[in-house]
What does this fold into?
Amino acid sequence: MKVLVVGSGGREHAIVWKLSQSNTVDRIFCAPGNAGISEIAECVDISVNDFDALINFVKHYWIDITIVGPEEPLAKGIVDVFEREGRKIVGPSKIAAQMESSKVFAKEFMKRHRIPTAEYKVFTSHTHAEEYIRMKGAPIVIKAEGLAAGKGVIVANDIDEALNGLKLIMKDKIFGDAGNRVVIEDCLKGEEASYMVFTDGNSILPMASSQDHKRVFDMDQGPNTGGMGAYSPAPVVTSEVEKLILDKIIKPTIFGLKSEKIKFKGILYAGLMIKDGLPNVLEFNCRLGDPETQPIMMRMNNDLLDISLAIADERLDKIIPAWQNNASVCVVLASAGYPGKYEKGKIIKGLDEVKKLKDTVVFHAGTAYVDNNLVTNGGRVLGVTALGENIKLAKEKAYKAIEKIHFEGMHYRKDIADRALNRK
Ligand code: AMP
Ligand code: GLY
It folds into this structure.
């Protein structure tokens, strides 16, 4: 079978890597892909939002199924376009993708279906929002309604920070129209975890739990990033907590959408805050997490093509989940300056040495080949991911591998997975 993967990050490299192990996959294409992906798939120079070019490609090459990585094409309706053309694709429709693309839609949905989440109010008026913040006090959380590349959330510790954040979103429009409406919600405390499931709209296939590290510096300092590392499983998600996540959050969401005549197919990702064993939803995403996918794919024994076809054909209940009983840790190596301004084109060295290591895979995010040299081409450059019997051993392997890798300005967190190791 022929598969097209849409996207170009570490998540898409992990998807392609997993597909490349399937016995039924003959050819893998990736649009647009990156240097690492080009070693195991055929990269095609089409943007993730150019639906006409993607459909033409799929028809011309007789692609059997397309898997979409990032949220933007999903929010813009890539699935609707493909399904209209009778092409198999893994991802939610534009309406269903609103669970991620509109925080107002997601919050109102959660309220209707009594899914645990922070108390909130929605504002279109800056003045009213300001009054509400003064009335509620800090800490308080301000969220631009629309997609903002993971940066549209301000967790304000005092009123000034909150009012300044509100101004940036609603008046200065730093996220453009994504900030026309804001959600202002109570600040939740606890431990964060990511919980993702595959779903065909009728049945649910849970993935292993994971935890992301959003801040750029050790000890969760500095600005938020797309994610500086992740590990799986997340010990905070005990079997009791997992049952609550499924019963109180995932099932009511999928079946609640269905009851509203919205079929959610693809991946539902719940960003959670867990306190005293009780999970609350911080956000929903309608796609795989990045970098959570990297450790998760390393622990998954199922054939990703089988799962993808089962989602598209709505027979996911036939798939039996198979996970390795070990742990995986992914550490992101980033360019100097990330998540702010950064330079590209720095030569990357040492990956051949890492290839010799057992249980260690380097997933590429922002990389390219220029004049036969592997160079940096983005903020997040590589995700060094290792498997071990437990989190401690997986972490040690990942950091051992990093010692062999170098590019100018390379920086990374030294404390990925410590949160799991230091739990009481
Ligand atoms: P989101 O994009 O909604 O997940 O928000 C990004 C990050 O902001 C989350 O991963 C949390 O660290 C933080 N966050 C979001 N909502 C809340 C909240 N209600 N309380 C505390 N932290 C939050
Ligand atoms: N790692 C967080 C996300 O993918 O949204």
About this structure: The two ends are 48 Å apart (CA to CA). The mean pLDDT is 96.
